[in-house]
């Protein structure tokens, strides 16, 4: 994915979060290849934008790749260092784990079925 397309998509997400007063965001990035430029922009620019939203929790689902895991942890550390921990960012290997983190009292399997139905419509 080109950097400009990535930025446009993330700005759309920001607008959606802000306009709808969302507190939770699940991002499935298992099929994405973020560049260092994307990561830097996310931490420095998107982080600033999200700071003034009601967002409380971000769950990022990432591919099972040890290099991505190291990069993701470094990104989270940098975000917490710059913006503090008022917004929680966690990384997960599966969408089901991310949904369980977001909605601990809900059956993630049922949510996945509903999501699949909505996205196929």
Task: Tell me the layout of helices and strands.
Elements: H1 3-19, E1 24-28, H2 36-51, E2 57-61, H3 66-83, E3 88-92, H4 95-102, H5 108-120
Parallel strand pairs: 1-2, 2-3
Write up this protein.
The model has no long low-confidence stretch (mean pLDDT 83). Helix 4 (95-102) packs across helix 5 (108-120). With 121 residues, this protein is α/β, with parallel strands linked by helices. The chain is 60% helix and 12% strand.
Apparent shape: globular
Record field, number of beta strands: 3
Biggest sheet, open or closed, and with what strands and sense? 3 strands, parallel
Spatial ordering of strands, largest sheet: 1-2-3
Structural class: alpha/beta
Order of SSEs: HEHEHEHH
Helix content: 55-70%
Radius of gyration: 14 Å
Strand fraction: 5-15%
Annotation field: number of helices: 5
Low-confidence stretches: none
Output mean pLDDT.
83
| Straight-line N-to-C gap | 25 Å
Précis, in short:
By secondary structure, this protein is an alpha/beta fold. It has helices spanning 3-19, 36-51, 66-83, 95-102, 108-120; strands at 24-28, 57-61, 88-92.
What descriptors fit this protein?
alpha/beta, 5 helices, 3 strands, globular
């Amino acid at each position: 994915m080109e950097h400009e397309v990535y930025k446009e998509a993330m700005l759309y997400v920001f607008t959606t979060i802000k306009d709808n007063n969302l507190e939770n965001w699940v991002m499935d990035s298992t099929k994405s290849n973020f560049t260092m430029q994307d990561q830097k922009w996310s931490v420095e620019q998107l982080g600033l934008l999200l700071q003034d939203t009601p967002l409380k929790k971000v769950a990022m689902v990432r591919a099972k790749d040890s290099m991505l895991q190291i990069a993701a942890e470094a990104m989270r550390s940098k975000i917490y260092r710059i913006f503090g921990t008022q917004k929680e960012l966690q990384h997960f290997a599966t969408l089901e784990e991310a949904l369980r983190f977001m909605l601990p009292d809900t059956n993630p399997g049922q949510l996945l079925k509903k999501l699949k139905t909505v996205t196929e419509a």
